[in-house]
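Practice problem 4.
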């Protein structure tokens, strides 16, 4: 995994465990293929819902360690429990070779080449089991990570390009490739005599993937140089993985834009122009004071319309139901 991952505490849950009792303000999800996902949750903002008191309680370090120790399966933090081995793997990959009609979807290596010796070879990857996100979540970063098998004798570049048409890893060949964009999405450099994980920034593409336009990416060598690279495929332990970071836009934030409609004494409705989320606020009471002024407001949030976390009705809470994040 990347160095950034090791800086955060990793918690893996069985697929059967209900996630509605856990929450975090921001999250990061790793899609590992074969219907497996790993959630890396930041330590500070993790809370557990106490059904007896209808309150969110911060998880202690000891409790987090216990939960990690009790995790028997790397499966599925954000995957549906209905997922099975019959479904497609989380990340599909293959490569094509010029002059060959052979399919390489089950090879352990992904080839990229523009050399005369190996010929032209192109790699294709697609994240088919995207981690589930709510309507209130905004993707802040998405990266596709790969690891090289071969340590090059000179620095080598790998270019990442959006694929514009659907493709099947079991049938794709060099003569039957999908169209790709004429603009590179990102690139990385594999340094001389080094084995390491490399990542491609696919944030803009990931937002399109969640809208249904998911055809994956093509990895290629620059046309201006003669070079080749070999990467681990999903058939190996060092398989490619997908890193998704997101933030919640569920509440009223000063940096977001809303349409507001007053309902008089009943309160004010606000509709987010970012995701269409409805927030309705009703002022209960307010007491002025120089030392301890107090105000209490009821809030309804359509993103929580299926939850009664505080015993106040589905989607409702007050301004006192808050958590403090360091």
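Answer key:
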């Amino acid at each position: 995994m990347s160095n950034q991952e090791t800086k955060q505490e990793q918690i893996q849950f069985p697929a059967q465990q209900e996630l509605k009792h856990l929450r975090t303000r921001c999250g990061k999800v790793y899609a590992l293929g074969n219907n497996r996902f790993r959630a890396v949750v930041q330590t500070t903002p993790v809370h557990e819902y106490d059904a007896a008191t209808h309150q969110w309680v911060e998880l202690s370090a000891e409790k987090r360690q216990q939960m990690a120790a009790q995790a028997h399966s790397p499966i599925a933090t954000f995957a549906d429990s209905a997922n099975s081995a019959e479904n497609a793997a989380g990340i599909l990959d293959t490569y094509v070779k010029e002059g060959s009609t052979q399919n390489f979807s089950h090879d352990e290596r992904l080839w990229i080449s523009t050399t005369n010796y190996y010929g032209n070879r192109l790699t294709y990857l697609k994240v088919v089991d995207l981690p589930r996100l709510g309507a209130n979540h905004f993707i802040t970063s998405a990266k596709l990570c790969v690891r090289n098998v071969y340590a090059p004798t000179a620095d080598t570049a790998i270019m990442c390009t959006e694929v514009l048409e659907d493709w099947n890893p079991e049938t794709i060949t060099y003569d039957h490739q999908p169209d790709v964009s004429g603009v590179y999405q990102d690139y990385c450099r594999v340094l001389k005599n080094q084995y390491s994980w490399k990542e491609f920034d696919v944030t803009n593409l990931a937002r399109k993937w969640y809208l249904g336009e998911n055809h994956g990416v093509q990895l290629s060598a620059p046309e201006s140089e003669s070079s080749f690279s070999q990467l681990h495929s999903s058939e190996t332990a060092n398989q490619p993985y997908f890193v998704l970071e997101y933030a919640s836009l569920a509440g009223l934030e000063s940096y977001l834009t809303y349409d507001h409609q007053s309902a008089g004494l009943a309160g004010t409705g606000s509709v987010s122009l970012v995701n269409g989320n409805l927030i309705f606020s009703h002022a209960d009471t307010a007491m002025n004071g120089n030392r301890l002024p107090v105000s209490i407001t009821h809030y309804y949030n359509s993103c929580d319309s299926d939850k009664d976390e505080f015993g106040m009705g589905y989607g409702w809470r007050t301004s006192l139901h808050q958590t403090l994040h360091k």
